């Protein structure tokens, strides 16, 4: 070992890996290196190209709810690993790893609070938890969120981010689709709005069910929104699809969603939408 390397190894600097992870963020769209503090202060949106990065439930709640107004709702308890599934790993081991990484019990987290003074229940899917996949726990959390909104006579808002149904739960995961559709109908019967915010990515069985049942459909810019993969569709119809196919902008142009809202504007947008959809509370 050279004299220079011996000296360098003895200097108590932060390692290169730790420094890169702590100080810099590489945008997955434009590939620019952004100072992490600047990136986080910008709500995890790239200041160079406007790419909206993926964020978890707590950051969503902090951004959307009025400060200090919100609280987490209890996570539901469901039967884990009902099929005793195993691929390269046991399903139970995958759940443990996802819980350790995210600090969440499953991929959908609910909270209640206020937005511009209006009560709301918000559910957020976390793509970091097994790709935001939909299983028994997600289905039960969705239903409980909807019923909490009914109990509090307020809107139910869901932020979607998912690769679709959870394969480790087989047909049981697909059965969550009609279950959640019934919960949406319960909201309608109670005269309460169901608002969906589509984030990157939302796909598969989630896109085919509750993600597209909102009274108002809002999407973040450039979000990938699809039922199935681009290549599968092209091979099926034997045609080349537009470059922006399955993006939020394409769906807006074709009338599938109602609006696109940048993350910085989302809180105010939701506040206005709730004001439009619910009558003003009468003064006591």
Search tags:
284 residues; 2-enoyl-CoA Hydratase, Chain A, domain 1; 2 domains; 8-stranded mixed beta sheet; 12 helices
What does this structure look like?
The protein has about 280 residues and is an alpha/beta fold. The strands form two sheets. Strands 3, 4, 5, 6, 7, 8, 9 and 10 form an eight-stranded mixed sheet that branches. Strands 1-2 form a two-stranded antiparallel ribbon. Residues about 15-20 have low confidence and may be disordered. Helix 9 links the parallel strand 7 (about 195-205) and strand 8 (about 215-220). The longest helix is centred in the middle third of the chain and has 16 residues, at about 135-150. The protein folds into two domains: about 15-50, no CATH class; about 55-275, 2-enoyl-CoA Hydratase, Chain A, domain 1, CATH 3.90.226. The protein starts with a helix and ends in a 7-residue tail after the last helix. It contains twelve helices and ten strands. The chain has helices spanning about 5-10, 15-25, 35-40, 55-65, 90-100, 135-150, 170-175, 175-190, 205, 230-235, 250-255, 265-275; strands at about 25, 35, 70, 110-115, 120-125, 155-160, 195-205, 215-220, 225, 260. Helices cover about 40% and strands about 15% of the residues.
């Amino acid at each position: 070992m050279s004299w220079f390397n011996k000296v360098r190894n003895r200097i108590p600097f932060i390692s290169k890996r730790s420094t890169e992870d702590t100080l810099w963020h590489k945008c997955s769209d434009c590939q620019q290196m952004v100072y992490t503090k600047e990136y986080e202060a910008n709500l995890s949106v790239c200041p160079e190209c406007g790419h909206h990065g993926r964020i978890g439930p707590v950051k969503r709640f902090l951004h959307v709810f009025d400060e200090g107004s919100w609280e987490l709702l209890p996570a539901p308890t469901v039967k884990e690993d009902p099929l005793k599934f195993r691929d390269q790993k046991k399903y139970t081991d995958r759940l443990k790893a996802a819980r350790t990484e995210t600090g969440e019990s499953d991929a959908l987290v609910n909270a209640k609070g206020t937005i511009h003074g209006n009560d709301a229940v918000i559910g957020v899917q976390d793509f970091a938890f097994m790709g935001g996949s939909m299983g028994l726990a997600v289905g039960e959390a969705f239903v409980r969120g909807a019923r909490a909104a009914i109990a509090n006579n307020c809107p139910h808002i869901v932020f979607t981010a998912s690769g679709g149904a959870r394969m480790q739960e087989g047909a049981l995961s697909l059965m969550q689709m009609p279950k959640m559709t019934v919960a949406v109908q319960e909201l309608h019967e109670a005269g309460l709005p169901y608002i969906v915010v589509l984030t990157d990515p939302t796909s598969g069985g989630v896109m085919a069910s509750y993600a597209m049942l909102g009274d108002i459909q809002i999407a973040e810019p450039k979000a990938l929104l699809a039922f199935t993969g681009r290549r599968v569709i092209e091979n099926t119809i034997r045609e080349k699809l537009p470059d922006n196919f399955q993006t939020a902008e394409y769906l807006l142009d074709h009338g599938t969603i109602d609006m696109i809202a940048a993350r910085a504007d989302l809180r105010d947008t939701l506040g206005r939408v709730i004001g439009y959809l619910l009558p003003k509370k009468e003064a006591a």
